[in-house]
Design brief:
168 residues; alpha+beta; 2 domains; 5 strands
């Protein structure tokens, strides 16, 4: 991928976009297509696009080799007078009441993660202390037990990052 393209794709970060990808062995109706391919883009990198779905905060990843195009969508807020006028005009033209596909009653959004909260392993005290009494002066002593505890804490930290989606 061209570095300039990757740089220009950053325009979409934080915005709700439709992502068109290569075909797959499933067919989707309009509603399901929006549920699968419309996301608020969180990150764009050389591997692909990470995004969360606006209606339920589920996370999706689109691999760069399969992305055909990205289209910025306009979010309409019925509380915004300008947007309310657009909605009213649409309803007048179509004769149908606009129903939002966001926050449908049958879809209960998951609880949002608290931002700023430390991961469980990050608020632990250090896993080892350097015991100065073992210093022999000439030889270097490696405390295998301390290294094993450090490796285990590091593994738990990475697992917690992966589990909570803190991979940035």
């Amino acid at each position: 991928m061209n570095a300039n393209t990757l740089k220009r794709l950053q325009h979409f970060v934080g915005k709700v976009c439709s992502i068109v990808s290569t075909s797959m062995n499933r067919s989707f109706n309009e509603t399901i297509s929006r549920e699968h391919f419309v996301v608020r883009i969180e990150e764009v990198n050389i591997d692909g696009i990470w995004g969360t779905h606006p209606y339920n905060d589920m996370i999706s990843f689109f691999a760069m080799p399969h992305i055909i195009s990205v289209h910025e969508e306009m979010e309409l807020d019925p509380n915004n007078p300008e947007h309310a006028a657009m909605i009213a005009e649409y309803e007048k033209q179509t004769g149908a009441k606009v129903k939002t596909d966001l926050m449908r009653p049958e879809v209960k959004p998951p609880e949002k993660k608290k931002t700023g909260e430390l991961l469980p392993v990050l608020d632990e005290s250090p896993v080892f202390d350097v015991d100065q009494s073992l210093d022999t002066g000439d030889a270097t002593f490696v405390d295998i037990e301390s290294l094993e505890r450090l490796a285990e804490k590091t593994k738990r930290t990475f697992d917690a990052y992966d589990l909570l989606g803190k991979h940035k």
